[in-house]
TrEMBL record:
<feature type="transmembrane region" description="Helical">
    <location>
        <begin position="6"/>
        <end position="24"/>
    </location>
</feature>
<keyword id="KW-1003">Cell membrane</keyword>
<dbReference type="InterPro" id="IPR004776">
    <property type="entry name" value="Mem_transp_PIN-like"/>
</dbReference>
<feature type="transmembrane region" description="Helical">
    <location>
        <begin position="163"/>
        <end position="183"/>
    </location>
</feature>
<feature type="transmembrane region" description="Helical">
    <location>
        <begin position="101"/>
        <end position="123"/>
    </location>
</feature>
<keyword id="KW-1133">Transmembrane helix</keyword>
<feature type="transmembrane region" description="Helical">
    <location>
        <begin position="129"/>
        <end position="151"/>
    </location>
</feature>
<dbReference type="InterPro" id="IPR038770">
    <property type="entry name" value="Na+/solute_symporter_sf"/>
</dbReference>
<feature type="transmembrane region" description="Helical">
    <location>
        <begin position="67"/>
        <end position="89"/>
    </location>
</feature>
<keyword id="KW-0472">Membrane</keyword>
<feature type="transmembrane region" description="Helical">
    <location>
        <begin position="227"/>
        <end position="249"/>
    </location>
</feature>
<keyword id="KW-0813">Transport</keyword>
<feature type="transmembrane region" description="Helical">
    <location>
        <begin position="255"/>
        <end position="275"/>
    </location>
</feature>
<feature type="transmembrane region" description="Helical">
    <location>
        <begin position="287"/>
        <end position="311"/>
    </location>
</feature>
<dbReference type="Pfam" id="PF03547">
    <property type="entry name" value="Mem_trans"/>
</dbReference>
<keyword id="KW-0812">Transmembrane</keyword>
<comment type="similarity">
    <text>Belongs to the auxin efflux carrier (TC 2.A.69) family.</text>
</comment>
């Protein structure tokens, strides 16, 4: 990885977030506008990134094996993050009633909104493909491990399974299906998905910029005594753990880079929505998401700089 590319990508992301901050003054941010942003990102831009990445990469038997490996690694890495968050919270806040929220916020990152576009920029189409598979692993953990932790009855049922069926997941299945059966999509479809995929980063970053302006100081102070746990685990401890993992097992260089970048992502953007669904503290989810996103603008390039200084990929 070229550090100059990393720095330029983070700088562009910062500018886009700032544009969102400015635009937040020009329209009311309510439930309808929030749903519009999320719908465009989740149902249009993200599926097109996935399809575009698959269309641009020559997928063979070996590539499929690597994709399965990345999916499994994603499940392991995210589960480790959740376990670390739970353990640290139990040590420092034994009587806290926010263990569930803090554990989820520690393990699950913004591997879709930020991770896939960043991997596409830093590593190329193959990196974007593996990043999409990693994100599919995150979705799997959200609606299995995450749902089980957040549900009071801790039961995996048909409703939970149905929640795993979403547009990005369908895009992965369709894309892999076309690759497996060697179906070449029309040039029009390739060009369309490529152009729509370009919407992902700008819309997601502008959305985060708008979200920043909803942050209330009183709520930050209320949750501030505990959210250092997910911030430290998600942005520092988990990436260092992944760095140790890839140093020991020495996977494919592209996979090494992809899972390392994905492990550095800030907390899941949809955390507050997930918490709301299971009657958890959605305010803590929103605050942690925003603060981790802001802090990650410094930690991501710093961590990658350290990696480039001391490790060779």
């Amino acid at each position: 990885m070229e550090f100059s590319v990393v720095f330029q990508s983070i700088l562009i992301i910062t500018i886009m977030i700032f544009i969102g901050v400015v635009l937040s003054k020009t329209f009311p941010f309510n439930e309808d506008t929030r749903k519009l942003f999320i719908s465009l990102i989740v149902n249009v831009a993200m599926p097109c990134i996935i399809l575009s990445s698959i269309f641009k990469v020559e997928i063979n038997k070996d590539t499929f094996k690597l994709m399965v490996l990345v999916f499994c690694l994603s499940i392991v890495i995210n589960s480790i993050g959740i376990a670390l968050g739970w353990s640290i919270t139990k040590v420092f806040y034994k009587d806290s009633n926010k263990k569930r929220e803090l554990a989820i916020l520690s393990g699950l990152g913004n591997t879709g909104f930020i991770g896939i576009p960043l991997c596409a920029t830093l590593i190329g189409p193959e990196g974007a493909l593996f990043a999409a598979i990693f994100d599919a692993g995150v979705d799997f953990v959200i609606w299995t491990v995450g749902a089980l932790i957040l549900q009071k009855n801790s039961r995996f049922d048909l409703k939970t399974l149905k929640s795993m069926i979403n547009v990005p997941t369908i895009a992965i299945v369709l894309g892999l299906g076309t690759a497996y059966f060697n179906i070449k999509p029309p040039i029009l479809m390739i060009e369309l998905t490529s152009q729509l995929a370009a919407l992902a980063t700008p819309i997601a970053m502008i959305y985060i910029g708008v979200l920043i302006m909803t942050l209330k100081a009183s709520k930050v102070r209320e949750s501030g005594s505990q959210i250092w746990v997910p911030l430290s685990v998600k942005l520092i401890i988990l990436p260092l753990t992944v760095l140790l993992l890839i140093h020991v097992y020495a996977f494919n260089p592209v996979i090494n880079q992809t899972i390392l970048v994905q492990s550095m992502m800030p907390t899941l953007t949809l955390a507050s929505i997930l918490f709301s669904k299971y009657s958890a503290d959605e305010g803590m989810g929103a605050i942690t998401t925003i603060l981790s996103t802001i802090i990650s603008l410094s930690t991501i390039p710093l961590m990658l700089y350290v990696v480039n200084m001391f490790f060779v990929f």
